[in-house]
Amino acid sequence: MELTNKVALVAGAASGLGRAVCADLAKAGAMVAVMDRDEPGVRAVAEALPRGLAVPADITDATAVEEAVERVCAEFGAVHINVNTAGVVDAAKVVSKGKPASLEEFQRVVDINLCGTFNVMRVAIAAMLRNEPENGERGVVINTSSGAAFEGQPGQAAYSASKAGLIGLALPVAREVAGKGIRINTIAPGLFDTPMSASLPKAVRDGLTAEIPEPRRLGRPEEFADLVHSIIGNGYLNAECIRLDAAVRMSYR
């Protein structure tokens, strides 16, 4: 799919990977709807784009997302691309000091990372189905999983489960919309230089970086955005999960 004059809805766009995706797609000529629950952040990102639209919304709120996508369609006329990067990380062992983990906290992480992503993509796909096909394509959805979906660390039960769920989501949805010109793909990034990783103590960041084979550094958000761009442009790529992690495979310690 060509990006010029296409409409992209990016969720989790106020910072980090999502913000980089917004900038890259806008540079390529797309109109970009910036979605995040961080309203000041959403507005700042949208205002920095040539054709940006701020649509603040909580991705776990069905009505808020439906209203946001309606606004995007009213302002820009369509949704052709949906990139979902919103997510939270949590650390909690199943049992710690004899006490079981909080079920509410597990549910919160899954609700945001997995259910929230599904919430956005279900509404975005409904909008894409109204598009006239261009070279057989109506839309592209790209979700963000994680290397933790494959090699989860102790304390990452909720995070790993939610991110593994996103990988499992792609194929059945791709099959549901088969023949309608919509592709569903997933990126599983490794360790990236984002506000989330920046909040870690320096010793922890250095230890994680030391496990990365090549190049031995954290990924740059622009590199994630570049892969998003490539997936959009490759019309034969569907129901795939691509690891973007410099070959890191986290140990269990």
From TrEMBL:
Family matches, as InterPro entries: KR_dom (IPR057326), NAD(P)-bd_dom_sf (IPR036291), Sc_DH/Rdtase_CS (IPR020904), SDR_fam (IPR002347)
PROSITE patterns assigned: ADH_SHORT
Keyword Oxidoreductase: yes
UniProtKB keywords: Oxidoreductase
Domain of life where this protein originates: Bacteria
Family matches, as Gene3D superfamilies: NAD(P)-binding Rossmann-like Domain (3.40.50.720)
Domain Ketoreductase: start-end pairs: 6-190
Pfam family of the protein (one): adh_short
PANTHER family the record matches: 17-BETA-HYDROXYSTEROID DEHYDROGENASE 14-RELATED, SHORT-CHAIN DEHYDROGENASE/REDUCTASE
Family to which the UniProt record says this protein belongs: Belongs to the short-chain dehydrogenases/reductases (SDR) family.
The name this protein goes by in its record: SDR family NAD(P)-dependent oxidoreductase
UniProt source species: Prauserella endophytica
Source species taxonomy: Bacteria, Bacillati, Actinomycetota, Actinomycetes, Pseudonocardiales
